[in-house]
Amino acid sequence: MYSVLEPEKKYINQWSKAKNIEVKCVKENLNSETVIMAKGFDGINFQQIHPLEPIVYQKLHEYGIKQLTARMVGYDMIDLTLAKKYDLIVTNVPAYSPRAIAEMGLTQAMRLVRKLGYYDQRMDNLDFRWAGLESTEIYNLTVGVVGAGHIGGATAQLYSALGAKVIANDPIHRVELAPYLEYTDFNTLLKQADIVTIHTPLNDSTKNLFNKAVFKKMKSTSYLINMARGGIVETSDLIEALQTKEIAGAALDTLADEGQFFEKKALPEEIPEDYKILHAMPNVLLSPHSAFYTDTAMKNMVEMGLNDVAAIVEGKRPQFQVLDN
Ligand code: NAD
């Protein structure tokens, strides 16, 4: 099991004991240097956002491994064509806890709506004035969900429970979400939404979807929430839109050039320039790709991921095979 985080270990040990299956944990990511660690094992499990190098697929095949089981939702770091070429069944954990990400997005949106970044800045300077920071109330707002799948659907339910109007853009219309949202086209969503919250995967249709032209269509009072993948937003265009006040603020759990710098306390020179620019803005909230990080999510991602490793190794059908693989 690659990229094991300390808090995952108790859930891994519980699973291992219950199933009587040995699990070796390493903190390293799966890459050309660490793939050798998989030799001699029946299956592997991993989580990482950086693309797997082509040699990794070949080596796993040579070691007799039959699967690439990611204990995470996104699988854009896996080349499905290469996986197929080397007979590696790809699985993910499609819904370890949609609420974890949905609640984080809502929390950040409420902080933006209440202008808490500006208040924090003032309070840090012992400036107790509230003038100029009039806010609004969530039930008066229209929320636009871009990508209403597991996480977008959970997000719609949360905002709907708070009385907000929820509109959504997604090529798939789900009847079960009818009580919580209305579907609309992308341009109408941009025009009407006070909060635009992104919950699509990163793919060809969403890469840099949020760019200069799109920010121009959004309300100047609107907030952008990106809890999905950094590559969906063109960061330099976002910075410009914030600087020119085309939009009012943003909460970003992920940026296109995010590195491994959240794994240890990074030195200032290791932090990309765009993070520094955004971090200095009181109307921008940054978090270190931590929306998933709850107890429920950790337990589920470990158990669901390992169950599928075991299933494939035992020649059974995994629960979460990625369909187009
Ligand atoms: P999901 O597959 O259940 O839902 C994604 C939805 O997006 C689908 O309904 C799909 O039809 C829709 N979609 C795809 N392309 C679209 C487009 N161009 N325009 C509009 N809609 C589009 O996935 P999910 O479980 O809801 O997760 C969504 C994404 O969230 C993941 O792919 C992952 O990248 C990200 N994620 C982030 C974190 C985090 O910690 N920040 C954690 C988990 C997942």
From TrEMBL:
Organism the protein comes from: Lactobacillus kalixensis DSM 16043
Family under the similarity heading: Belongs to the D-isomer specific 2-hydroxyacid dehydrogenase family.
This protein's name: D-lactate dehydrogenase
GO molecular function: D-lactate dehydrogenase (NAD+) activity; NAD binding
CDD domains referenced in this protein's UniProt entry, alphabetically: LDH
Protein's UniProt keywords contain Transcription regulation: no
Oxidoreductase in keyword set: yes
Keywords, alphabetical: NAD, Oxidoreductase
Domain annotation D-isomer specific 2-hydroxyacid dehydrogenase NAD-binding: ranges: 107-291
Domain D-isomer specific 2-hydroxyacid dehydrogenase catalytic: 7-322
UniProt-listed Pfam families: 2-Hacid_dh (PF00389), 2-Hacid_dh_C (PF02826)
Gene3D superfamilies: NAD(P)-binding Rossmann-like Domain
